[in-house]
Write a structure and sequence with these properties.
The complex is a heterodimer.
Chain A (H helix, E strand, L loop, with lengths): L2 H10 L8 H11 L5 E5 L2 E6 L8 E7 L4 E7 L5 E6 L11 E5 L3 E6 L9 H6 L9 E3 L4 H7 L5 E4 L4 E2 L4 E4 L2 H17 L7 E7 L7 H10 L3 E9 L17 E5 L5 H13 L4 E5 L8 H4 L7 E9 L7 E4 H16 L3
Helix pairs in contact in A: 1-5, 5-9, 7-9
Chain B lengths: L1 H8 L9 H11 L4 E4 L5 E5 L9 E6 L4 E7 L5 E6 L10 E5 L4 E5 L9 H5 L8 E3 L5 H5 L7 E4 L4 E3 L3 E4 L2 H14 L7 E6 L7 H10 L3 E9 L19 E3 L10 H13 L4 E2 L10 H4 L7 E9 L7 E4 H18 L3
Parallel strand pairs in B: 3-12, 3-13, 13-16, 14-15
Antiparallel strand pairs in B: 1-2, 2-12, 4-5, 4-9, 5-8, 6-7, 6-9, 7-8, 10-11, 11-17, 14-16
Helix pairs in contact in B: 1-5, 5-9, 7-9
The chains are: A alpha+beta, B alpha+beta.
Chain lengths: ~350, ~350
């Protein structure tokens, strides 16, 4: 399995929260190799693997399929698109950024930036960042031309495509959380054909970036005993707080938090130690801001944990990560499942 | 012209690093004129006409673009940068870039928005807080791939845009270079000098030596200029607009343009129905600033294509404006020899 190739394909395809279709359909195609029971239901991709029975646990493996972006809210008389943000957007980096508007066909847009002659010196001193309602997108079309292509509610993504960096590291726009999707696919590849001590559901969930909504309904439907949210977390960069971050290249970050199941956290750590899989511990003091927050309180409660892949520059068009962290996360998940009785 | 423009925009050539652009141009004009490269790196090309004139005319456009230069490698492998030419940090943050002569991939990242304070979210970044990440995790790994003084360029990504427009980096001033390459292919009655200049973005430095060497009587500078025809900008603050043709200005921050040439340009435009506009704000500057005060003075005019988002990785021009610039220049050349 060529992890990098699949990651690039999944991360380059669009799937802004609520408009995940293209990414979901591609992810579903990959999943079909490992399960004959795959469907998209209420926007979530759901696959079942193995016979469910009362004498073995049912495990939910989740990665969210959606990505942050923007949504068209209005077309101005001179043909510019006004937007709303979908998920957490860093407005400092929007100026002159190239985007793709996913209308009837994909078109290129440029986020309008204020030319320097229009910025008064007072403003320069304050170096203000535009509010989201001040953002508009140039498409090079008039309003009438644009209305043939773009409808209100269409989604907008950054235009950057995945590229390789040195040392087995890569950059792309929606590695959050397509790398989690790839890690799960890679774990399923390792488990393929094996008799497992548990039954499995895989969910590539929708709308995580707008409040873990897909995960909420998927977990209700699946009703698992154990749920693992495979997502990304902060990889340390010099401008961040070291103790709050993981390190890129040092393996999956296993979550420990009052809101997570300590039993599962410990089992993951034990598994990593047993098989010499590099790992890091990510201690959180409350909620995790991942789908695990929803899983743990589903129905009568689920033993939930996070397994996070370290990622630099999260939610920017240039997220950076290391491929070996996906491999190590996949190994950890596969070994955990093999021991999950 | 558009084919040249696309090819030229795919090349990297920040100020002082124009050699790729220069090599392309030298290759294109080979055999069509006599040319040499001066000590700064300007191309001085002489195109023989059917006859010589007492008047010497120089057409100029600059080859360089804005970019970045690597100033240090930090212990964690991050590359600190400084701007080459005027670049706002807000068009650098969150971009892919190409680093060094081998064009290795890099990014200018930003701390995750989740970890920004409310204050940080609202404050635009400054360039000294930004760095280029090539994927290195320590200094020695980075130093295998980059050296101090290496240039960093925006990724070339020229594409057709909207209805009849183009988006790309470096349209400033590959537009001027592309028009000059077209003009060099035409036959003119009189001799013409073409100067492809370097280091405009650092302060019109190439134009200074080119004009000194050529000693022209007249000069036409081909450029791009800021268009602010965007929402919520009204009246004179729009400066000039895409689709309204060539921009001929009477004054900017570097030059009071020759009044007669200014008048003639609009006369030609009207006679030939070439779309032409002036700038409604005194803003910007170009190689004219160095040329018009060269030697004993040079009668100078600039013909510019209106361009949105100048000095960003995504500049936008309209094809019909480029055509207007080219036709106007061609007709003005003929008229200048008859002044």
């Amino acid at each position: 399995m060529d992890i990098k190739e699949i990651l690039f394909k999944l991360a380059d395809i669009s799937g802004v929260s609520g408009n995940e279709d293209r990414a979901s359909e591609l992810a579903m195609e990959y999943l079909k190799k490992y399960s004959s029971d795959v469907k998209i239901k209420n926007r979530n991709v759901i696959a079942n693997i193995g016979e469910r029975s009362n004498d073995k646990p049912h495990v939910l493996l989740d990665a969210h399929i959606d990505q942050i972006g923007m949504i068209c809210t209005y077309i101005t008389d001179d043909g510019f698109i006004k937007v709303g943000n979908v998920g957490g957007l860093d407005r400092r980096l929007l100026m002159a950024q190239r985007v793709i508007i996913h209308g009837k066909r994909d078109i290129t847009g440029i986020i309008v930036s204020t030319p320097p002659h229009l910025v008064s010196s007072d403003e320069k001193k304050a170096s203000k960042v535009p509010e989201i309602e001040d953002i508009c997108i140039d498409t090079g079309y008039t309003k009438a031309e644009l209305e043939e292509i773009v409808s209100l509610g269409d989604s907008i993504t950054f235009a950057t495509e995945c590229k390789e960096l040195i040392g087995g590291r890569v950059t792309g726009k929606s590695l959050d959380d397509r790398c989690g999707v790839v890690a799960i696919l890679c774990a399923l590849e390792q488990l393929q054909g094996e008799e497992l001590p548990c039954s499995l559901s895989v969910v590539f969930s929708a709308q995580e970036e707008v409040g873990e909504r897909g995960a909420k309904i998927a977990a209700y439907e699946i009703n698992p005993d154990i749920a693992i949210a495979v997502d990304v977390s902060f990889a340390y960069t010099a401008d961040d707080i070291e103790y709050k971050c993981g390190k890129m290249g040092e393996g999956a970050m296993i979550g420990i938090s009052p809101s997570l199941s300590r039993i599962i956290s410990e089992k993951l750590i034990e598994t990593a130690k047993m098989y010499n899989i590099p790992y890091q511990i990510e201690v959180m003091s409350g909620l995790t801001s991942t789908n695990a927050d929803q899983f743990s309180v589903t129905r009568c409660g689920v033993k939930a944990c996070t397994v996070s892949i370290p990622l630099k520059y999260m939610h920017t068009p240039v997220e950076v990560m290391q491929i070996s962290d996906i491999e190590n996360t996949a190994r950890l998940i596969a070994e955990f499942i093999r021991r999950c009785s | 012209m558009l084919e040249h423009l696309k090819n030229l925009c795919e090349l990297n050539g920040a100020s002082g690093n124009e050699h790729m652009v220069r090599d392309y141009i030298l290759d294109e004009i080979k055999g069509k004129c006599s040319c040499h490269v001066d000590n700064l790196g300007n191309i001085i090309a002489f195109k023989k006409g059917q006859k010589a004139s007492e008047k010497k005319l120089m057409i100029a456009a600059h080859m360089d673009e804005v970019g970045l230069i690597i100033t240090s490698v930090k212990s964690d492998g991050a590359l600190t940068i400084s701007a080459v030419g005027g670049i706002d940090a807000s068009v650098l943050i969150g971009r892919q870039v190409l680093v060094g002569e081998n064009n290795i991939n890099g990014v200018i990242g930003a701390k995750a928005v989740h970890n920004l304070t409310a204050e940080e979210k609202k404050k635009a970044v400054s360039i000294d807080k930004l760095y280029v990440d090539i994927g290195a995790t320590d200094k020695s790994e980075a130093e295998k791939y980059v050296s101090l003084g290496d240039y960093v360029h925006f990724c070339p990504d020229y594409e057709d845009f909207g209805n009849g427009k183009i988006v790309s980096k470096a349209l400033d001033d590959r537009v001027g270079c592309a028009i000059m390459l077209d003009l060099i292919n035409r036959d003119f009655e009189y001799d013409i000098y073409f100067a492809f200049t370097v280091q405009e973005e650092l302060g019109l430095r190439g134009a200074k030596t080119a004009a000194f060497a050529i000693e022209p009587d007249f000069s036409i500078v081909l450029e791009t200029t800021t268009a602010a025809d965007i929402p919520d900008v009204a009246g004179e603050k729009r400066v000039c607009e895409l689709g309204k043709g060539a921009v001929v200005s009477f004054m900017d921050r570097s030059t009071m343009y020759d009044k007669e040439l200014y008048k003639i340009a609009f006369e030609i435009a009207e006679e030939n129905k070439i779309p032409c506009q002036t700038k409604t704000m005194i803003a910007g500057g170009n190689d004219s600033g160095a040329i018009h005060v060269s030697g004993k003075g040079v009668r100078t005019i600039a013909i510019s294509a209106p361009c949105r988002y100048l000095h960003s990785p995504s500049c936008v021009v309209q094809k019909s404006d480029l055509e207007a610039c080219e036709i106007l220049t061609e007709k003005l050349i003929v008229r200048i020899f008859n002044i």
